What we know:
By secondary structure, the chain is an alpha+beta fold. Helix content is 46%, strand content 18%. The chain is built from nine helices and eight strands. Strands 5-4-3-8-7-6 form a six-stranded antiparallel beta sheet. Strands 1-2 form a two-stranded antiparallel sheet. A hairpin with a 5-residue loop joins strand 1 (51-53) and strand 2. Helix 2 packs across helix 3 and helix 5 (136-143) packs across helix 7. The protein is elongated and about 70 Å long. 33% of the residues are buried.
Amino acid sequence: MLQTIQKIGPVLDLFTPERPEWGVAEVAEKLGLPRSSTHAILASLADTGLLAPTARGRYRVGWRIAELSETLRASLDVRAQAAPVLRELVGTFGETVHLAVMERDKVLYVDKIVGNHMVNVLGARVGAQLDAHCTAVGKVLLAQRDPADLDRWLAQAELRRLTPATVTDPAMLRNELHQVRVAGCAFDIGEAVAEVHCVAAPVTDDRGVVVAAVSMTVPASRFLPRKAELKRAVIAAGGRISARVAAATGATPRPARRRKGTH
C-alpha cells in the first residue's frame, strides 16, 4: 500500500499544461513501472476523481483536483480575511462562531472562536466534517449549488435524523434551500444538536461565488429572544468577510451569484 501511495505523486506530476494527457504505456515508460501496476494506479486515481479517462483511453486531470483547489483557496484565503470579523462577532455577542466550507458534500469547519458566556456551546471542532442538511452553514453552502448538482446530491444523500427537528424529507429540504437563497441566511433550529440553534450566512469571493459560510451557534434559550438581531449580525458579518476577501485580491465586492435556473 505504501509503495503504491509513493508512486501517486510522480504520476500526478506528469500532468502539466504543456502535456495534459497521458496514456498507460507512456506513464509506465516514463516512470519505469510495469504496465499492469501503472494501469491500476491510473484507474484508482480516476475512481477518486483525481484523474479522468478520455474517450481515447488516455487520462487527464480530473474534477477532484479543481475541487481540492477551491477548498484550499477557501480555507486559506477566506480564513485569514474572516478572522477579525469572527473576533468582532464574539466580542459583541459572546457566542461561539464558525467558518466552514464544503468538501466532498460534507461541511468542513475551518475556523471557530468559542464564546465567552458562562454557559456556552462549544460547537464543531476545526477540521470536523458534518452532514450538510442539518447545519446552518451546510444549508447556506447547499443553497448556492446549480439545480442539476443539487438534484444529484438530493438523489443520493443520506439525510440522517440526528434530532426530532432534523429535516429528512428531500422535498422539504429543497424548499428550505430556496428560502435560504431568498433570505440570504439559514437556520439550524436544534436539527444537529437538540437545544442548540444556529444562524449562518454566505461568504463570497471576488467573483461573487459563495465559497464559505459564517455562523453563530447559541443555546436555544438565548437564541430565540434575539433571533432577528443575530440574523442581521451574521448576514452583515458575511458581507464584511466577502468585502475583505474581494479587497485582498484588489477586486470590487460583488453580490452572490444567482444559480442557473433560479429567478
